[in-house]
Design a protein that fits this description.
Elements: H1 4-10, E1 14-20, E2 23-31, E3 38-46, E4 50-55, E5 58-63, E6 71-77, H2 87-90, H3 93-108, H4 113-132, E7 141-142, H5 150-159, H6 166-178, E8 189-191, H7 194-217, H8 220-235, E9 241-243, H9 248-261, H10 268-276, H11 285-305, E10 340-341, H12 342-365, H13 383-389, H14 391-402, E11 409-412, H15 414-426, H16 430-443, E12 450-453, E13 456-457, E14 463-464, E15 467-468, H17 471-477, H18 486-500, E16 508-509, E17 513-514, E18 517-518, H19 524-532, E19 541-542, H20 543-559, H21 573-593, E20 600-606, E21 609-614, E22 621-622, H22 628-637
Antiparallel strand pairs: 1-2, 2-3, 3-6, 4-5, 7-22, 8-9, 10-13, 11-12, 13-14, 15-18, 16-17, 19-20, 20-21
Helix pairs in contact: 3-4, 5-6, 5-9, 6-9, 7-8, 9-11, 9-12, 11-12, 11-13, 11-14, 12-14, 12-17, 13-14, 17-20, 18-21, 20-21, 20-22
Length: 641
């Protein structure tokens, strides 16, 4: 740009209109700040349908009569394109047959609303998956979050494993490895396009301010460095920026990589070629993977050696009295200002360590840790190298971390449940208080004791007693060899009972679904924090968590039954029945809400009735929510007996 005025002009769209034979076209051009890329929006309307009026910066359309009008929308850009994936490249043959059967059933049913609506929802989610999927990355959502989110990609890949082609795991793993940070950190989120320009510009301004400060102080050498750093940013102000401040995604990548490497359907030659691929310009993928595994092993080392609370994976300070979220509940109130998140410490770290053991074994089988490739092996003194040399040490670390869940367990007597729930209800508006009192009278949900895993631990290692849906992740990830053990059955039932126990005691709300949290047993300060920030609060149901619950329940049912649907042994009969009841109730409540295609949803209470409502910030097409495709497929395969 020759002058600041040129830059200011680029901040505003340029609107023009022109007549065409059939009507009128309005063109809106938006250049980027550096003028390297442009976005164009064309709106066209037939003169017989209506008219277009341009009053900058507004474009208005008006119908000629009182009928709906048709208009065309075309969006183009000269920015680099992603490589889209078709449904045949995304979904496996078994799922595509399932989708074709649903299409045929809808065609046969004529106007049966249930059958037609079911197929339309499946097709909508398939198209949504296509929109979000490319070889380079999976976008988190549309229209919001149309960019890479490492956690969203990896969680979705784990949930969609029953319906995805094997190549999808390769796309996701490659995308995460391509963006690893210097220490092996997985990128949580990328900033690109306009967001990259904003962030790079802010950094440019900071360097310039530093330049003037240093120049005025007489430190010419340091000032010149600041100026050089500022100029370097202007070379490509759209350079993609990565965000590495989350921790859960570090532990998710090993789980996903282990699932890929232990998949017997993928030939060893293909796995080896994938890991040795260096086409991204950062060296072989196996070296990047080992770098990430080394970071995970290092993070887990302290607690594995000395399993005390202070050695758990903790959050950094946000300020003098608050801790910053480093996992998926990344709103200010999400973990109730806890320092140690339950999902990271009691679920992800143990599963990541077990996955590292599987990866190391796979790499040895593939001869990628042989002497001839010693440069790819971990450094001798690292925890990862110790794990590689001593599988027994790794197994002890997994077992130690598996026990971390004990720090988060909360047990309340029936009297304590009634006392705390009554206190929470007393804080609510009269109409809401009356509604939930009616639920307690009808269900008797407050008449028994309660046990659950807290959402987090405070700075001193004490559980913050907020019930939550995060244990659903454990249900999805937990593997049983043969019949599930007594300990795993006990843990599964404890979690399922909190999901299905009626709110305000547990999480379950009829015709709505399981709340993402219940803070009734926490302090009034936490009630107030969730009241102000409802994104992960007792006011919402998350589609992600609903799908995790149902996929996890289906998986645990399958592990406890034979192909016919009967329990593997008689002792499992009541266990399987309770899991099936939980799955049926959850599915029915979510379907009844009519909002399961939303990222998250909420409710309102009026006239003594609870009504599901859309949550204001909900994304229309969301990667986590298209995992309902896996839910519907798995449910169709699950024996009902």
């Amino acid at each position: 740009a020759r002058a600041a005025a040129d830059l200011l002009d680029r901040l505003n769209p340029h609107i023009t209109s022109s007549a065409v034979s059939s009507g009128k076209v309005v063109r809106v051009m938006q250049p980027s700040l550096d003028a390297r890329t442009n976005l164009e929006l064309d709106l066209g309307i037939d003169a017989r349908e209506g008219s277009v009026v341009v009053a900058i910066p507004t474009v208005s359309m008006r119908a000629n009569g009182n009928r709906p009008i048709r208009f065309t929308v075309r969006v183009t850009t000269d920015a680099p394109a992603l490589t889209p994936l078709t449904r045949d490249q995304i979904f496996n043959p078994a799922f595509l047959r399932f989708l074709a059967d649903a299409r045929a059933a809808a065609a046969r049913s004529g106007k049966d609303p249930g059958t037609v609506a079911r197929y339309r929802q499946l097709e909508r989610d398939v198209r949504g998956t296509e929109l979000l999927s490319s070889r380079e990355k999976l976008m988190a959502g549309l229209p919001n979050y149309a960019t890479y989110f490492g956690r969203d990609m990896m969680m979705t890949s784990l949930m969609m494993q029953p319906v995805w082609q094997d190549a999808m795991a390769e796309h996701v793993i490659a995308s995460a490895l391509r963006k690893l940070g210097p220490k092996g950190d997985v990128s949580h989120e990328e900033a690109l396009g306009g967001q990259a320009i904003r962030e790079n510009s802010a950094e440019y301004n900071a360097h310039i301010a530093e330049y003037f400060r240093l120049a005025q102080s007489g430190n010419r050498s340091a000032a010149d460095t600041a100026l050089a750093n500022a100029r370097a940013l202007l070379v490509n102000v759209q350079k993609v920026r990565e965000n590495y401040h989350m921790r859960d995604d570090e532990f998710q990548l090993p789980v996903l990589a282990a699932r890929y490497l232990t998949n017997p359907a993928i030939p060893a030659s293909r796995k080896k070629a994938f890991l040795l691929d260096a086409s991204d310009g950062r060296g072989p993928r196996v070296a990047l993977l080992l770098k990430e595994l080394a970071l995970v092993s290092d993070l887990a080392r302290s607690y594995a050696r000395e399993p005390v609370v202070q050695n758990l994976i903790g959050s950094p300070r946000l300020d003098a009295t608050h801790w910053r979220s480093i996992s998926w509940r990344d709103s200010n109130a999400g973990y109730a200002n806890g320092r140690f998140a339950m999902d990271i410490n009691a679920i992800w770290v143990p599963r990541a360590l077990a996955s590292i053991a599987e990866i190391l074994a796979s790499l040895k089988t593939l001869q990628l840790l042989a002497p001839g490739l010693s440069a790819l092996a971990p450094d001798a003194g690292t925890p990862l190298a110790e794990f590689a040399r001593d599988p027994a040490l790794m197994q002890r670390a997994v077992e130690t971390w598996d026990g971390a869940v004990r720090h988060f367990v909360v047990r309340l007597t029936a009297e304590e449940v009634r006392e705390r729930v009554d206190a929470k209800l007393a804080s609510l508006p009269a109409e809401e208080r009356a509604y939930w009192q009616g639920v307690l009278t009808t269900t008797g949900a407050n008449r028994g004791p309660l046990e659950f895993v807290a959402i987090s631990l405070d700075e001193d290692g004490h559980p913050i007693p907020v019930i939550n849906t995060d244990p659903a992740t454990w249900l999805l990830l937990h593997e049983s060899t043969g019949s599930p053990s007594a300990d795993s059955r006990e843990r599964a039932l404890r979690d399922v009972r909190t999901f299905t126990r009626p709110y305000p005691v547990g999480l379950f709300v009829e015709r709505l679904g399981p709340m993402v949290a219940n803070d009734a047993y926490a302090s009034p300060e936490i009630w107030e924090a969730f009241r102000k920030d409802t994104y992960h609060s007792p006011r919402v149901v998350w589609g992600r968590e609903v799908n995790l619950i149902m996929l996890g329940l289906a998986k645990q049912i399958s592990s406890a039954t034979v192909k016919s649907g009967r329990p593997r042994e008689q002792a499992l009969a009541s266990y399987v029945t309770e899991l099936r009841d939980g799955l049926t109730r959850t599915n029915a409540a979510v379907e009844a809400s009519g909002l399961k295609h939303n990222e998250l949803w909420s409710y309102e209470i009026a006239g003594g009735t609870l009504r599901p409502i859309r949550y204001g910030a909900s994304t229309d097409v969301q990667l986590w929510n298209v995992t309902d495709l896996a839910v519907q497929f798995v449910l169709s395969q699950l024996p009902t007996r």
